[in-house]
Amino acid sequence: MATFELYRRSTIGMCLTETLDEMVSNGTLSPELAIQVLVQFDKSMTEALESQVKSKVSIKGHLHTYRFCDNVWTFILQDALFKNEDTQETVNRVKIVACDSKLLSQ
Amino acid sequence: MASSTTSAVYIHVIEDVISKVRDEFINNGGPGEAVLNELQGIWEMKMMRAGVICGPIDRSSGQKQPTPGGPITPVHDLNVPYEGTEEYETPTADMLFPPTPLQTPAPTPLPGSADGSMYNIPTGSSDYPTPVNDNSGGNTDVKGARPSPYAQSPSPWPNQRTPLSVDVNVAYVEGREEGDRGTSNQPLTQDFFTMSAGKRKREDFATQYHNSGYIPQQDGAGDVTSEVTNLEGSKGDNDLDRCYSATTEKIKVEAPSVTSSSKIPQQDGPIPDPYDDMLSTPNIYNYQGVVNEDYNVVNTPAPNDLQAATPAPVPQNDTGDDDDDEPLNEDDDDDLDDVDQGEDMNTAHLVLAQFDKVTRTKSRWKCTLKDGIMHINNKDILFNKATGEFEF
After folding, report:
1. Residue A93 placed within a domain
2. Which terminal CB of chain A, N or C, has fewer other CB atoms within 10 Å?
3. Dihedral angle at the C-alpha atoms of B353, B23, B47, B154, nearest 10 degrees?
4. Which among B44, B349, B358 is the top mutation candidate for probing chain A, defined by the most A β-carbons within 10 Å of its own β-carbon?
5. Taking CB atoms and an 8 Å limit, are A41 and B13 in contact across chains?
């Protein structure tokens, strides 16, 4: 199964990466095993987003920068408005990084 | 709402990951389940510090984990690791993380967050008698980890900052070397100048200039570097000096001279230019007057030539330059990096997702995203689908 390493940059991914870094650096964990954990995280996070998350969000804003490189879209929005069912958030600057969903199904 | 659902999903992911790597930890000479529990404990603690996991939900995860051990045992374990974590926090933070002392005040929230760690660690201890030591070690790890997770934004980045800063330093060292090369180039350029002068006077004089040219060049270069370093230690100054010398010698005629004596002088000349341009604006002035043609000609090949071309006399100049230049460059870099990263952290609103479709009509962009994690205004929000409408 193909996976994205994309989600490692999320809060949960960063926390895991930090934890693994510490455990590898103090010798409790082998680097190989740490990588296996990260790969498993990629899978689990992707699956959880597919199966457990149902919410829908709309995003509006001024597109400051767009980039499409290596099948990854990167948008930098200014004065962006995020809406979902129960809340809405405004952000003066946000970065959106999106991988091609078709790559996962291959 | 969002936070609770996000928390639930995160906890599910943690449990899923832990359960699916359990075999790897237990079998094939793996580190054992105690280490796995330690991993989970630290991970969840960081998550709670980051505020993306809710305490109560974590308990359920803790109960699920204990599968090997009795559900009751975790209670005892909770108390033990709980105290241990608090005690460890301040010392470990000081021990492991120099920045932590600033963050240590944060640990007060520990009691709430500590629940998850407690649950996790106890299970490991209950299963394995020896793991108690491991647990303490795990706590120490947690301590070190905690400061960072607590102020999540600062902690993860600082860790990265150090490597980044190191990299920057390295890059600068290279820059220095290059700059040094440039200084070393100065003698060459001076030779070049002498060469050019000889050419002007026509090649009869050239031989004399060559012989005498090398010695004065070395002296001149060394003097120039020392003087420059004393003044500001910046490469740009060296270049300026070079330019002045060049102008004094009326080297503006260089183009013909370069073609004739192209071998040494060209390589040297072009090399310092790109770096100088990169490093400081003042260099530009130099080139405007003198080196424009050389720069264009040798520009692409320059990097290769630079390394190969460095002459023997250079090292002396390098050492001197390195001593003087390093502190200046390093300080500047660090400051800039810190500022940039700090800004990034404060404004790091990030959406990670997969895109189904991205279309544009004139300046109007539409995209459909799915399976995303948004970190906005210090909140994590997950979405199954997202539609974006942007105006470029």
Report:
1. yes
2. C
3. -80
4. B349
5. yes
